[in-house]
Amino acid sequence: MRDRTRLGTTAAIFCHLLLAHSLVTSQLLPLPGQVAQQDTPAQQPPSSSAADTRRGEPVTIRAREQEKDGDIFKLRGDVEIEFRDLLLRADEITYNVRTGDVTATGHVVVSGGPRGEHIEASRATYNVRAETGTFHDVVATTGARFRGRDVTLTTSSPFAFTGKVVEKTGPDRYVVHNGSVTSCELPNPKWSFHAGRVVVELGDEAKIYNSTFRIKGVPIFYFPYAQHPVDPLARKSGFLVPTFGTSSRKGTIIGESFYWAINRSMDLTLGAQYFSRRGFAQDAEFRFRPAENASLGATYFGVLDRGFETSVGHVDQGGQDIHVDGEAQLKYGIRGVASVNYLSSFVFRLAFTEGFSQTVNSEVKSLVFLSKTFRGFSFNSLAARYQNFQSTTRGDVVTILHAPSAEVSSVDQQVGRWPLYWSFSAAIEGVSRKQPNFITDNLVGRFDLHPRATLALLVGGWTIRPEIGLRNTYYTQRLLPDGGGVGVPGSDNVNRRAIDLALELRPPALARIFERPVLGRRIKHAIEPRVVYRHVNGVDSFRNILRFDSRDILSNTNEVEYAVVQRLYIKRAGEGSETRELASWELKQKYFFDDAFGEAVVNGKRNVFTTTDQFTGIAFLTEPRRFSPLVSRIRIHPSASTDLGWQLDYDFRHGRVNASTTYLNWRLGDFILGGSHAFLLAPGEIFVSNPVPGPDRFNQFRVLIGYGNPNKRGWSTAANIGFDANLNFLQYSAFQSSYNWDCCGLSFEYRRYALGPVRNENQFRFAFTLANVGTFGNLKRQERIF
Fold first, then answer.
1. Closest CA to 488 of 438, 442, 441, 431
2. Cβ neighbours of residue 589 under 8 Å, at least 6 residues apart?
């Protein structure tokens, strides 16, 4: 018994000494006031807690083996150190609690920080308190947070860099020696900049010295100096990626641009392109946002064209196109808007503008206005300029100017509790018009007053709405007939007075809800008829009114409009689902008791009246008539990704279709299909510069078919065409294909223009886009389908 007691006592004393010795502990106990992190032994290595002796910040340490000698921790086996929001891992680490110095070897990983840094290295020396150190054989990323096996991206394209030696000289600054930078996934990036020295400023940019740009490791370009943004939202001044392309008319295209970040709210991009066959093009874009509710932008595009020789001599198609757009919310609830456009010639737009719809647009509109709305009253002041280029002949343009004008109007205002409402509009304006062989005074005064009163009645489900309006418009100049159909401006004034009477009847809508669901959906059918009678009298001077805008086309009329609208609504069976309109079909027509509109109609000439404007596809009449064309409007909207419409005008008098427009937009997953067909039969079109009838038939198709989307990895392909069925001629075609990787994309496009003698061009364009860097090529973002 005595021997057994002695043996137990000796073992207890010896084991106590082993536990107390600081150099051989396998699991250190928490220091006073600190709580050690509790982990399951099967999941985590043993842990302990220490404290930064200078700041008292907690430090969590995990390791398979741990030794402590004063302030020095020697850690081996799956070592982890957590300090603030930083996690450091390695096979072996020596850590000085007092100084914060760390020496790590073997599979070193440092991750965390506000920038989402993740550094992998073979060995490192690091100070966790100063956030400085040196890493060897580095692979690093920013913009991604790692928590165990979970990775969360903090940007859409994390920034990555590698280096033989990487020095971290501050919390957000790295100096990379003999390394590379990229936005691609490592270890096999699609592209990268390889350089002897790179200075990385997190949240700013990477400055790359003496670098080669490589694709799949193959050197492509040498750059003595380049910049790569580290923060995708940051803006830095500098030269952009050069552009390059080819065209059958422009030749080889080479361009470069400079971006100037003037300050936080203002920037400017200046660029130039060289066309080997035509000359130089210049472009600029200015953006300014001085406040949250104010903005100003301007773009400029011009070409110094060397021109080309034709059978009729030298042809110069150069010119300028300028756009200025601004908006601001001023004091006292006043809103200011400016949209100013300038185009030097229509030939320039046809010859050099990209995008078919912009190329063939012959209108140029400018508008500046101030607006204030208060208790249903609107106060406006504006200046506007409208131009319509009639042909490619220089000077063949109609220009209509609205000098600074003032207008006040109101919405319907109820009189007491009666179902009687009143409203009005009044304007004081200065206008002018200029076109070949026709020029008004520089400023024609126009004063307009239009009060209205309406009675809104609901009787037995019928809506009855009688309305009366008085209109007085005074002009300081009048139009005089000259026998040529256009007229000449006279010096006398003219005062137009009119009374406008209207009566609208809407009987109760007929509706039926079908009890049996179709494809799990309930269906409702509604029929909504209406009849509107209108009588305008007093416009006896229609042929003496100068035409500037829609205010000047009021004519006498005595008419009735009758229409019926059918609608189909669907709703999923069950409570809580929403009802939406599946389809609608409107049929409408007008009968004119006065087929000559108070002797305003001139046979064989375009006659545009308020009653015909926007009612049918063709806004004008060429002869007196009793019936308007029958107007049909069908729209089908089966889903959020499908839209189908057909608009048709049928003329019973001549037994023909005057206008027909069909469109389809459909998407199924990544497949897209779009198309439209427009047909117009418009007799009476007269050219301004050459007073002979122009083409009276317009019949064109537009088709777009494609697969993919801008954010899809892999292939995306689309093609579109514009075909003139009247001339049996392909005016426009384009084929575009792109392939997107994780950090870059490559797009190719073939585009064909056939716009008569002005432009017959084949273009081959491409774009190589680097995430967070820029685009090399001449296929601009706004011109891409994907």
1. 438
2. 561, 562, 563, 627, 628, 629, 630, 631
Q: What is the predicted pLDDT for the residue at 44?
A: 52
Query: Is the CB of residue 219 less than 8 Å from the CB of residue 213?
Result: yes
Calpha distance 189→216 (Å, rounded) = 7
Q: Count of CB atoms within 10 A of residue 193's CB? A: 23
> CB under 8 Å to 745, separation ≥6 — which residues?
738, 739, 767, 768, 769
* The token pair that represents 528 in the structure block: 């909504």
* Residue carrying the six token digits 């409702």: 524
pLDDT in the model for residue 154 = 43
Q: Which of 635, 632, 758 is nearest to 308 (CA)?
A: 758
Contacts with 664 (C-beta within 8 Å, 6 or more apart), sequence order: 643, 644, 673, 674, 675, 676
Q: How many residues does the chain have?
A: 786
**How many whole angstroms separate alpha carbon 324 and alpha carbon 346?**
19
DSSP-assigned letter for residue 14: H
C-alpha to C-alpha distance for 134 and 38, rounded to whole angstroms: 32
The dihedral region occupied by 729, where left means phi > 0, alpha psi between -120 and 50, and beta the remainder, is beta
Q: Is the dihedral of CA 88, 150, 232, 223 positive or negative?
A: positive
Structure tokens belonging to residue 649:
């005008």
Of the candidates 535, 534, 584, 591, the residue with the CA atom closest to the CA atom of residue 562? 591
Give the Cα separation of 747 and 752 in Å (integer): 17
Per DSSP, 627 falls in state: B
pLDDT tens, position by position, 6-27: 444 444 433 333 333 322 333 3
Yes or no: say if 341 and 353 are a contact pair by the CB < 8 Å rule: no
What is the rounded CA–CA span in Å between residue 67 and residue 105? Answer: 16
DSSP 8-state symbol, 523: E
| Structure tokens, 229 | 């943004």
Q: What pLDDT sits at residue 144?
A: 52
Residue closest to 655 by CA, chosen among 620, 679, 630, 678: 630
